[in-house]
């Protein structure tokens, strides 16, 4: 089973424990932390547990967090993933280091996820057919809202967005 996806400028592959320090740095960035739903400040132990929970969720078939790595340097710059995968619905989550904002990396990753959702979910050993994606985005997080709008997500509630595949 191929668990890596090489895109034009980044590689998506499941997050691993060795990514703990880099992921901690991204999630601890004030510009990222202000919009996530993790308790702050995050410790490295918190991030180790988050990664372990993602790995466990992957084996249970209900979670997949991909690290986003630059093709030329293998530097972790962010994550994109699916959570609470059930029947035809999954929640989308993503974060990106502010050093890489405005360069289209998240657009590249999201376009891949939307186009290849079946292949992505198959990574979990799931035979599910995801037809509904949901995302929770803070009201103040206008950049993420713009990203979701560009990809035809619909604003359905205060902090909720939906996408029909």
Spatial ordering of strands, largest sheet: 1-2-3-4-5-6-8-7
Unreliable segments of 5+ consecutive residues: none
Shape: globular
Question: Mind summarizing the main beta sheet?
Answer: 8 strands, mixed
| Fraction in beta strands | 25-35%
Overall mean pLDDT stands at 92
Feature tags:
165 residues; alpha+beta; 34% helix; Aminopeptidase; 8-stranded mixed beta sheet; 8 strands
What does this protein look like?
- The chain is of the alpha+beta class.
- It has one domain: Gcn5-related N-acetyltransferase (GNAT) (Aminopeptidase).
- Helices cover 34% and strands 28% of the residues.
- It is built from six helices and eight strands; from the N terminus they run ββαααβββααβαββ.
- It has helices at 20-28, 30-33, 44-60, 105-115, 117-122, 142-150; strands at residues 5-6, 10-14, 64-70, 76-86, 89-96, 132-136, 154-157, 160-164.
- The protein has an eight-stranded mixed β-sheet with strand order 1-2-3-4-5-6-8-7, sandwiched between helices.
- A hairpin with a 3-residue loop joins strand 1 (5-6) and strand 2.
- The chain is globular and about 35 Å long.
């Amino acid at each position: 089973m191929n668990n890596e996806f090489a895109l034009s400028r980044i590689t998506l592959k499941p997050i691993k424990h060795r990514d703990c320090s880099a992921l901690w740095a991204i999630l601890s960035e004030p510009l990222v932390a202000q919009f996530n739903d993790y308790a702050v400040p995050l410790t490295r132990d918190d991030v180790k547990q988050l990664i372990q929970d993602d790995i466990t969720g992957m084996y249970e078939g209900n979670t997949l967090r991909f690290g986003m790595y630059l093709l030329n340097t293998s530097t972790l710059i962010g994550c994109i993933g699916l959570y609470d995968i059930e029947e035809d619905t999954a929640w989308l989550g993503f974060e990106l280091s502010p050093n890489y904002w405005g360069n289209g990396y998240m657009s590249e990753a999201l376009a891949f996820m939307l186009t290849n959702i079946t292949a992505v979910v198959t990574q979990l050993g799931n035979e599910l057919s995801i037809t509904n994606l949901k995302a929770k985005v803070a009201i103040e997080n206008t950049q993420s809202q713009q990203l979701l709008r560009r990809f035809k997500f619909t604003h359905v509630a205060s902090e909720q967005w939906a996408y029909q595949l």
